[in-house]
Amino acid sequence: MTDFISLFDPISIVLITIGGILIGMGVHFIPVGGAPAAMAQATGVGTGTVQLAAGAGLTGLISAGFMYHMLGNDGLTNIELIQVMVSGAVGAMIMIAVTMFIGQLVYVYCVGVPPVSAKVDKDPITGDIQDIYVSKGTEGHGIPTVSFVSGVIGGLLGGTGGSLIYAILMNAGYPESIRSIAGPSPEIVALAGIFSAGVFYVNAVVASYNIGGTIEGFHDPKFKRVPKAIICCLIASLLCAAIAVPIMGGLI
Asked: What is the DSSP string of 27-76?
């Protein structure tokens, strides 16, 4: 019988914690406008922080899971682990980019507002003047270039963190000693997916509370709150990892 103490693999716990921190940081990059943005009165996508971040993250998990099971029936090498993480990152980036692009089409061609930020007078990337185009009584509207780029970076960080968590949990539940050409059992795959999604949601909610409403991206003054989020996500992810890793290891 496996010693319960030996199930607390410190390396796995540390890597999962790092993945959770990446998720929390990524949420702060995603331009979230909430209900005001849905009425074109704030910059960003018109939905909540958790919904938007988790949507991108879960898409990344699906991409990472596909890549893992294409490569990992006999275990992952370091290069293959990087491939899994890149796959997850690209999946999340595509999802958030498409969401922002379709939202932008609605803002510009249906609502009829220019994509401008009220947080800065000029777009930090393009240098375009914005303040003269902001409607009175609003916090900006649409998704300006800086917010779009920030959102893609957020997808990169969130997808990387989520795919790292999934790969590490799969490694804990399907170690080298029991690997076969048949691959991991459905129970291991399902539980790793559930835990990965759970850790993602926990960190997305923590980051959402830290943001406290809407955020435009890395140029938003609220972005300065990231250090607090890192500390909170570190603690939350560490607790999640301390629960998930022994359970996955106990399936052996």
From this structure: HHHS-B-HHHHHTTSBSSBSS-HHHHHHHHHHHHHHHHHHHHHHHGGG--
pTM over 0.85: yes
In angstroms, the CA 108 to CA 194 distance is 38
Question: Per-residue pLDDT tens for 27-55?
Answer: 999 998 888 888 888 888 888 777 777 77
Tally of domains within the chain: 1
Burial 27-42, CB ≥16 within 10 A → b, else e: bbbbbbbbebbeebbb
CA-based end-to-end distance of the chain? 10
**15 domain residue, yes or no:** no
Angle, vertex CA 86, rays to CA 147 and CA 18, nearest 5: 80
Residue identified by tokens 């988790």 is 54
Cα(226)–Cα(243) distance, integer angstroms: 25
In a domain, 3, yes or no: no
Whether residue 14 is contained in a domain is answered as no
Asked if residue 166 lies in contact with residue 193, where contact means CB atoms within 8 angstroms, the answer is yes
Structural domain boundaries enclosing 82: 20-247
Tokens for 42?
A: 């704030």
- Does some domain include residue 5? no
Residues 130, 140 contacting (CB under 8 angstroms): yes
pLDDT tens track for 185-210: 777 888 888 888 888 889 988 988 88
